[in-house]
Amino acid sequence: MSKKPSSQKSRRKRKTSTRPRTEAAYFRTAPDTSRIELAIDAKTGRVSPGMACEAAYTSVTYERENAAKGEKTVNRVFSRDGNVALDADAALRDFEVCVAIDTNTTVVDGRRRSVIGVVVTDWQVYGVPYCIEVADIPVGWEERVGWTLALNHLCADSFLMRGQSTAILVDAHLGQLEAINRGKQAIIEGCMLPEGWVMSYASADAGADFVANRLLRMADKTATQTMEFLRAGSVSLPDGPTLGALHGTKRVIHSRNSFQSWEELHTLFNRSVHAESAR
Length: 279
Fold this sequence. Notes:
Blueprint: H1 7-15, E1 22-29, E2 38-40, E3 46-49, E4 53-63, E5 71-78, E6 84-85, H2 88-92, E7 97-108, E8 111-121, E9 126-127, E10 131-135, H3 142-156, E11 166-170, H4 174-181, E12 197-202, H5 211-232, E13 250-253, H6 262-278
Parallel strand pairs: 7-11, 11-12
Antiparallel strand pairs: 1-4, 2-3, 3-6, 4-5, 5-12, 7-8, 8-9, 8-10, 10-13
């Protein structure tokens, strides 16, 4: 647990990057748009559209060495209100809270097992409340089922609340996130994204100098370490009734650094700060 490094430090890191990037704001206008009008706030670096838009986002990309693969998307942060920050970190901080979710899947003893890594932050502190292990998710549905289970658990535990502006970072299905945000597509059948919540994309293997990518990488690392622990210790997933058509039995996995509420996370953070100060 630690505070997020300053934006000034983050920008210094980006300047030393060896791969040129494009960081830009994009607006998808409504079909009947006849005029493009944008206003830029020089102080905040935010761009506001003067026309109706179906989607707006900040995106960071770079050209791959193999041009045939197309450009690499480092992150894409969708706007919650139509206004877009030119800086990806600032765009993410427009939300009250943020959660990063990543699902890793492997076959153990002939059974497909998935671990969902979860990271939450309110921009003061961040941490991993728990991981979720699930059995028998059909191939191709691992991420979507993982998102759904993680969000349901976080809501039940009051880490997330409906009506609260919430950014959800994932590293899959980039081409479908806009439709999910607009309510045109369900995460899984019967599960629509609540109002005020926005799904965005961050790569786990690039962009370590951006907040979104660091959070996603933490979720990925946590899921990987948990899976390795379960495999090394031969910890079996107990049999049980199938919980719906898209997955089998599941369980929540806690560690010594787990916490059950925002208040507990803040307390743990303050204790660590005081301990460091006393050294």
